[in-house]
Amino acid sequence: MKPDTTDLVIREAERTDVPAIVALFAADGVGGHGDSADPAALPDYFAAFDRIAASPADRLFVAERDGAVVGTFQTTLTPMMTGRGRLVMTVEGVQTRADRRGLGIGAAMMRHAVALARETGAGLVQLSSNARRTEAHRFYERLGFEKSHVAFKMKL
């Protein structure tokens, strides 16, 4: 049986959503991003939200059910020289609240991102996922994403 997401609302995040978004990331033991729900860290997250909100290429979304934030993701549009100048949408920070996984929320968020990419004329949607997240990899593959590259990072 397909999960029912008829009552799920996916919308652009508002500044008041920041603590709930941060709580999603802070509860993630696999991500390794060092996120913290400590109120002393909130100014950093609000500054990040303000930068995202000011950027014409970036958008931050939340998935909401029964008035509670149950998921989030961010999109970035990048015009590329490769691919004959195609526009690429990168989806990052995909997170569903742990107690709400398996209910179709992540799939609904990704469908929303792909639809947005199509609307904006992007020719490619890409994302990265922690190598340890094998369940997430199967999830993305079920949605039609293909493993194609190896990612490298350098913390500064």
CATH architecture: 3-Layer(aba) Sandwich
Gross morphology is globular
* Gyration radius over CA: 16 Å
Q: Structural class from helices and strands?
A: alpha+beta
The CATH class is identified as Alpha Beta
> What is the overall pLDDT average?
90
Look at the structure and name the CATH superfamily.
Answer: Gcn5-related N-acetyltransferase (GNAT)
Fraction of residues in β-strands: 15-25%
Give a short account of the largest sheet: 5 strands, mixed
How far the N terminus sits from the C terminus, by CA atoms, comes to: 46 Å
How does this model look, in words?
There is one protein chain. Helix 4 links the parallel strand 4 (87-96) and strand 5 (124-127). The protein has a 5-stranded mixed sheet, sandwiched between helices. The N and C termini lie far apart (46 Å). It has one domain: Aminopeptidase (3-Layer(aba) Sandwich), CATH 3.40.630. The chain is an alpha+beta fold. Helix content is 33%, strand content 24%. It has 5 helices and 5 strands; from the N terminus they run βααββαβαβα.
What is the fold's blueprint, element by element?
Elements: E1 9-12, H1 18-26, H2 42-54, E2 58-65, E3 68-79, H3 82-85, E4 87-96, H4 105-120, E5 124-127, H5 134-142
Parallel strand pairs: 4-5
Antiparallel strand pairs: 1-2, 2-3, 3-4
Question: In short, what is this structure?
Answer:
With 156 residues, the protein is α+β, with helices and mostly antiparallel strands. The protein contains five helices and five strands, in the order E-H-H-E-E-H-E-H-E-H.
